[in-house]
Design a protein that fits this description.
This protein has helices at about 30-50, 55-80, 90-105, 110-120, 125-135; strands at about 5, 15. The protein is mainly alpha-helical and about 140 residues long. The protein has one domain (about 25-135). A two-stranded antiparallel sheet has the order 1-2. Strand 1 (about 5) and strand 2 form a beta hairpin. The protein starts with a strand and ends with a helix.
Length: about 140
């Protein structure tokens, strides 16, 4: 354990202070709000500035990457800055970012996007993601 020592300017003697600790008694409210804002800003920046006028799959992928980054910010900052870490947020972060990067990289056509939408729009995919999140939080 490291103990800080400072010199008192009035007496010139060494003064020992308690070790500095991180304040972790904060609620995650600010972290959640910041992560939501970061995800929205990144998603808008990618879709409006980086890929303007792109195909549907690229715009969808860039939005997914942006919001995936927001989830990653939530997972990382909640561990470092709050007493209630939201480690489960890493699951949607990885899922959204990987899916978005795949859409941006491969840019599937309309027929492939319709097939992807058919497979991912059902309750099974949402249930599976919810199960993964609950397993990773406990």
């Amino acid at each position: 354990m490291k103990v800080d020592t400072d010199t008192d300017t009035t007496t010139g003697q060494a003064v020992t202070s308690a070790p500095r600790t991180r304040r972790t008694d904060r609620t995650p409210t600010r972290v959640v709000a910041g992560a939501l804002l970061a995800g929205a800003v990144i998603a808008l920046a990618l879709s409006l500035a980086v890929f303007p006028g792109a195909t549907e799959s690229v715009i969808t992928g860039s939005l997914l990457v942006g919001f995936g980054c927001g989830w990653a910010v939530l997972a990382a900052l909640s561990v470092r800055r709050t007493s209630q870490p939201q480690r489960w947020a890493a699951v949607p972060a990885v899922a959204m970012t990987a899916t978005g990067l795949g859409l941006v990289a491969f840019a599937p056509g309309d027929a492939a996007m319709s097939a992807i939408n058919c497979c991912n729009s059902g309750p099974n995919s949402r249930t599976g993601l919810a199960i993964l999140c609950s397993l990773s939080s406990g």
